[in-house]
């Protein structure tokens, strides 16, 4: 499997507009009137990732994500279009997001994704997925196809190769 650099159908990268005053700053994470009709967040969570740590790569069968990076910390987000019926199938995207480039990324189901904390300090990530984790009452299987545990997986190999050459 060979990936080519390029945009991925359905992925939306949105820089945050910061409103700054003497108290600090404010940025809207999302507004329903700015989201595509197919995406409506169902829950949210926040995580902290230590410097150098990679989360993923994995993909979802039914879930789409809205990741938000505002800082502290900076991240490299890598995406691969793994949807055979997509016009951007096998495209790969990379974008830096975080304190130095605050913004969000909507990631459709079937798009493999991972992110690595590339700053010296831990980084904060907010996610607002359109499905409940493990369904209502946490009674369903987790909606993830995990690729990170197989070193021969093409997404893992691609991420490792890009990190070595970066």
Automatic annotation (TrEMBL):
Its EC top class is isomerase
Q: What is its EC number?
A: 5.1.3.13
Stored SUPFAM superfamilies: RmlC-like cupins (SSF51182)
Bilayer-crossing regions: none
Ranges for the region named Disordered are 143-166
Which reactions appear under catalytic activity for this entry? Answer: dTDP-4-dehydro-6-deoxy-alpha-D-glucose = dTDP-4-dehydro-beta-L-rhamnose
Pfam families (UniProt xref) = dTDP_sugar_isom
What is the protein's known function?
Answer: Catalyzes the epimerization of the C3' and C5'positions of dTDP-6-deoxy-D-xylo-4-hexulose, forming dTDP-6-deoxy-L-lyxo-4-hexulose.
- The entry's protein name is dTDP-4-dehydrorhamnose 3,5-epimerase
Q: Which organism is it from?
A: Geothrix limicola
């Amino acid at each position: 499997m060979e990936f080519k650099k390029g945009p991925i159908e359905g992925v939306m990268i949105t820089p945050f507009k910061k409103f700054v005053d003497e108290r600090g700053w404010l940025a809207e994470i999302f507004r329903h009137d700015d989201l595509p009709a197919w995406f409506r967040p169902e829950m949210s969570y926040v995580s902290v990732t230590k410097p150098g740590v990679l989360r993923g790569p994995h993909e979802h069968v039914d879930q789409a994500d809205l990741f938000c990076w505002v800082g502290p910390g900076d991240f490299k987000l890598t995406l691969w279009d793994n949807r055979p019926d997509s016009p951007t199938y096998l495209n790969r995207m990379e974008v830096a997001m975080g304190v130095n480039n605050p913004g969000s990324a909507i990631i459709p189901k079937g798009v493999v994704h991972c992110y690595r904390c590339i700053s010296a300090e831990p980084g904060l990530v907010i996610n607002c997925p359109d499905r409940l984790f493990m369904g209502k009452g946490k009674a369903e299987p987790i909606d993830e196809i995990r690729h990170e545990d197989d070193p021969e997986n093409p997404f893992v190999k691609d991420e490792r190769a890009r990190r070595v050459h970066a």
